[in-house]
Design brief:
Layout lengths: L1 H4 L15 H13 L4 H12 L5 H9 L17
Helix pairs in contact: 2-3, 2-4
Length: 80
């Protein structure tokens, strides 16, 4: 997440070799940092992870500790 929030690393493309679940988990944690509520985060995750969203990915997002990431002084414009 630190790399995603680092504007010097942009443009950035998030992909995973096995599908949507790893990227979906990362984006879910990013949404938590953005202040989204869990219902909206899970709706977005499920829409991209269909037809087989994974409960453990949703649990990871829910239990993620936002304090592990330091938001930069000048975050990307889309983050706000």
């Amino acid at each position: 997440l630190q790399i995603i929030l680092d504007r010097s690393c942009h443009p950035l493309l998030l992909v995973s070799s096995s599908g949507t679940h790893q990227v979906g988990s990362i984006v879910g944690c990013l949404r938590r940092l953005q202040g989204w509520n869990l219902t909206s985060i899970f709706d977005e995750y499920r829409s991209y992870a269909a037809p087989s969203p994974r409960l453990h990915c949703e649990q990871f997002i829910e239990l993620w500790d936002n304090d592990l990431v330091t938001i930069p002084a000048t975050p990307p414009a889309w983050f706000e």
